[in-house]
Design a protein that fits this description.
It contains eight helices and eleven strands. By secondary structure, the chain is an alpha/beta fold.
Length: 294
């Protein structure tokens, strides 16, 4: 389905959902973003699923591909364009898009929830620290809005296929439907808030026909992908990514459970403080009081 047709279908769903859900207590106002660009198939699938479930969706997403941008922000002017009714592009990062969405597009009608995704490729373990998808969700919670990040598995061996990564494309509808059910579950229990303050739920959906199940898992110290800086070119170094075999071998973390075919749910926060017992080793090595004395 072409890009224009995908958004036309979403527009029809938007009007239909508004007609049936206007007085529905569980209908949420949702800001939807991603790091693959406002017209990517993952975000359009999620927009359609959330809208069909009766939620009111506003898309504010990057103009172009922004994978690996983390929480990068742009200093200076941002070009903001309304591509379709309720669909805005931002010539900046995913974090920029969330900032624009919260402080400009939806300034007078703050959303109940920010959803980031669905992303082309898993964001597992320590990869969350460089993920634009997760970075957008983190930007939301730093502004006091609960958030979910959604990513769909990607097999690097499919990079040469046409279209590229067909198993990911095939999994987007299932991941979008899963996201809508997750949002509905939160909405049904929203009396104490959709999520605890300062927390996001990081969802990773495998690119399989039928997931093995759904599990809560801690983030691994490894990632779904490993980045390499060892491809020499005439002018410098070429970067490349590969699947992280060490992370996949772990039995109980998000990387291992995802490799086994499970949808993984991981709670993340923007608090980077090490636990006191973990920080003790660094403190023991540094005599802080002596550092001011020559």
């Amino acid at each position: 389905m072409g890009k224009i047709m995908r958004w036309l279908v979403w527009g029809v769903l938007l009007h239909a959902a508004a007609a049936v859900a206007g007085g529905e207590d569980r209908a949420l106002d949702i800001l939807l973003t991603n790091d693959d660009g406002w017209d990517s198939p993952g975000i359009t699938a999620v927009a359609a699923a959330l809208t069909a479930a009766g939620h009111r969706v506003t898309v504010v997403a990057p103009l172009s591909q922004q994978s690996g941008s983390g929480m990068k922000i742009t200093l200076g002017e941002l070009v903001v364009t309304e591509q379709h009714p309720g669909v805005w592009s931002v010539d900046g990062s995913p974090a920029d898009a969330v900032g624009v969405g919260l402080q400009h597009v939806l300034r007078d009608a703050p959303p109940d929830l920010v959803v980031s995704g669905a992303n082309f490729g898993q964001n597992l373990g320590n990869n969350v620290m460089i993920s634009g998808t997760v970075g957008a969700a983190m930007m939301a919670v730093m502004h006091g809005v609960p958030a979910i990040a959604v990513s769909v598995g990607l097999d690097l061996a499919e990079a040469g296929a046409e279209p590229r990564f067909p198993s990911t494309l095939a999994a987007f509808p299932g991941a979008a439907a899963f996201t809508a059910r997750l949002v509905d579950s939160l909405a049904a229990r929203r009396a104490d808030g959709l999520l605890p303050p300062g927390q996001i739920v990081n969802v990773n959906y495998p690119a399989v026909a039928t997931p093995a199940g759904v599990v809560w898992a801690r983030a691994s110290r490894h990632g779904g992908f490993a980045l390499r800086y060892d491809g020499a070119t005439p002018d410098g170094i070429k970067t490349a990514i590969e699947h992280d075999a060490e992370g996949q071998a772990e039995a109980v973390t998000d990387t291992g459970r995802f490799a086994a075919g499970y949808v993984t749910l991981t709670v993340l926060t923007p608090d980077w403080n090490a636990a006191d017992n973990a920080a003790a080793g660094a403190r023991a090595r540094i005599d802080a009081a002596a550092l001011l004395n020559p």
